[in-house]
Amino acid sequence: MKYSLQGMLFALCIAVLVCPTACADDGYELWMSYKKLEDATILEEYRQTFSSIVIQGQSETLSIVRKEAKKGLDRLLGADLPTGSTLTKSNALVIGASRQSQLIQKLDLSDELATLGPEGFLIRAIEIDGIPSIVITANEDTGLLYGSFHLLRLMQNGQSIKDIDIRSKPRIQYRLLNHWDNLNGSIERGYAGKSLWKWNELPETIDPRYKDYARANASIGINGTVVNNVNANPVILTAEYIAKLKALADVFRPYGIKLFVSIRFSSPLRPASNKNSRRGGIGSLDTADPLDPNVQEWWKEKAKEIYQSIPDFGGFLVKANSEGMPGPQDYDRSHADGANMLAEALAPYSGIVMWRAFVYDADVDPDRARRAYKEFTPLDGEFNANIFVQSKNGPIDFQPREPVHPLFGAMPKTPLMLELQITQEYLGHSKHLVFLAPMWKEYLEFDTYAKGQGSLVCRVVDGSLHNYHMTGIAGVANTGSDRNWCGHLFGQANWYAFGRLAWDHSLSSEAIAEEWIHMTLSRNNDVVKTIKSMMMGSWEACVNYMTPLGLHHIMQEGFHYGPGPDHAQGRQDWTSVYYHRADSKGLGFNRSSTGSQATSQYFSPNAEIFDNLKTCPEKYLLWFHHVNWDYKTESGRTLWEELCYRYHTGVDYVKAMRRKWAAIEKYGASHAAHIDQDIYLHVQEKLATQEKDAAIWRDTCLSYFQKFSNRPMPEYN
Ligand code: GCW
Q: Which one of the listed residues 337, 425, 482, 641 is annotated catalytic?
């Protein structure tokens, strides 16, 4: 017995020693595995360029930079580079801020740095004392961290850096993840295991994954995280939880990440007797009226308590008067009254409020798509300076495709924060390969015409259109306790893409896909090309096999995975029939001037273009119009035929993705451009599920709609 235990321990030690190179890839390292470069030419260039790493200065962030630069360069080059603080050898990577680095001071880059702000960085090939160096410098250490990750990204992509000269700074100031994580460890709309936050272990035990999470975010420029669900449990603001939050904030800080929380508006109230109620709080007041001095005082005291523990605490995200959550309207006060009260409590510490515009009370308008606009536009100009109104990309709810939310462009005096959803609530959970960057680009590049042509959503969000004094973007996270973080390996690409676009929304989806593939899967040209071709059309395909031509919200009730076009029970604006309105004449929601008039919430000429059936883009056809089954679409097919065609095209795309993935199997583990066998099989299995379930979508929806169209199903091979 004793012998075999020893034997097992020995085997374990060997396994641990050998693992870093021989272990199967489980996806844990995300886009930062820094696999050794295969291309001899570029490897030689890099080896010539770097013979040491020189970092001057001391801080927690700089220690992270040192570790990352060494790990990255060593792994990519297959080297063991010396690190130090003096420039002795030739050809060094020199990292530092002039505040702490004499080497950088000598270069006198202050004019250029003055334009880069607290987070920007400069990377340049330059001689220092006659020694050829690659310099990474910035105003703050966080900029050095971003710069280091950027250099490593370029190298993972095999780009020549001989003459590198890059200056970069984020276009958007607040780049946040929103976690819909509950305090019991579950995640609302999470498909990758449990929450990363182990509340019952905090603050004593710090899971090593917290650091890895922060590192991953820093590598793509994310600088804040809201750690709990917008359907907030008020317990998050108790002293016990503030101590836990402080422990997390301490881990995140050196990575440039600020901690935020979602709060429940009724927190000052006594606890609700029913634990599952969305009402009630943690206080002893009997009102949460934002104009009540006791309530205002309660929040001021709470803010003070938080900032005593977390001096750089970011602020509050609030879902109020939405889906049963309490809010100022419970006391006949406006959203602005509620937000301003919280903003006043946070203002002395430079904290912010992100007040969500996701509201859709049926009393406001019969058409759900019109409600948030009607509630919020009259309040433009009434919000305090440290408030964002945070709006989802579309007017309903993270559907596979929606037209842009009409609020964008319509709140010139209120900084709007764009909320995107990285987790695939309505896009196949973590079962479907759907690359979301093309979708996000479609929103970002949509022209609102708010101030004439060129008033793109990205210009609303980055503040350049209305001169917002602060700017922000949020992504609802798809991370969880699964070993590979996101459930589906390709879910990682969406986390990655969100961060990259938050930093620079002008990047193309293709470029982001390519980067991610190089960094995560392979640098072999054929493989990259194949995988990219799978990713690029995957969103459009998903739209086609779920909700083509502007259909929306016809998912299985609550679960939102499979099709549920016949769902007709319960709250009207949660049913499918409310949205598709299929009848014997046709299909779609008439939101034109002869219907709900949602088209009128857009600026001209969008309003007229959407309003007219003939000019409405087909991707929004059934969103804005109730269309006859025999209506001739652009292809010449009738609406019914086109609908059938789209559903089939969607499924066919998934079939093609499976074939393409199968074709790269030849690049097995032994091949230089290998895709790890475990990863290969993981994706293969997911694609099989996706194909099966896409076909279920097609067949369920078409046979359901056929009952209304009464037309034959066209033949497809
Ligand atoms: O779409 C709905 C989701 C809810 C979510 C809500 C919101 C967090 O189905 O799960 O609640 O949106 O964004 O508040």
A: 425
In this predicted structure, the answer to whether residue 217 has a pLDDT above a threshold of 90 is yes
pLDDT at position 671: 52
Phi, psi of 441 (to 5 degrees): -65, -40
Q: Given the structure tokens 């009226």, which residue do they identify?
A: 289
Among candidate residues 622, 614, 625, 623, the one with its CA nearest the CA of residue 592: 625
* CB neighbour class for 566 (10 Å; exposed up to 12, middle 13-18, buried from 19): middle
Among 355, 356, 358, 560, which is best to mutate for testing ligand 1, by the most ligand atoms less than 8 A from CB?
358
From the CA of 425, give the closest atom in ligand 1.
9
Distance 349 CA to ligand 1 centre (A): 30
CB 509 within 8 A of CB 536: yes
Least confident of 3-17, 113-127, 199-213: 3-17
Query: Residue 716's pLDDT band (boundaries 50, 70, 90)?
Result: confident
The verdict on the CB of residue 360 being under 6 Å from ligand 1 is: no
The DSSP H or E segment spanning 645 is helix 639-663
Report the chain's mean pLDDT, rounded to a whole number: 95
Alpha-carbon distance of 494 to 516, in angstroms, equals: 10
Give dist(CA 109, CA 461) in Å, integer. Answer: 30
DSSP string covering 133-202: EEEEE-SSHHHHHHHHHHHHHHHHTT---TT-EEEE--SSSEEEEE--B-TTS-BTT--SSS-S--TTTT
Find out whether the peptide bond into 605 is cis, omega within 30 degrees of 0. Answer: yes
Cα(319) to ligand 1 centroid in Å equals 10
Q: Is the pLDDT of residue 90 over 90?
A: no
Q: Report residue 2's pLDDT band, with 50, 70 and 90 as the boundaries.
A: very low
Burial class from Cβ neighbours inside 10 Å (0-12, 13-18, 19+) for residue 282 reads buried
Give, using CA atoms, the residue closest to atom 13 of ligand 1: 358
Per-residue pLDDT for 286 more than 80? Answer: yes
Q: For 468-501, how does the pLDDT look when each residue is reduced to its tens digit (9 = 90+)?
A: 999 999 999 999 999 999 999 999 999 999 999 9
Angle, CA of 423, 426 and 427, to the nearest 5°: 75
Q: Across-strand partners of 53?
A: 83, 93
Q: Tell me how many helices (H) and strands (E) the chain has.
A: 22, 16
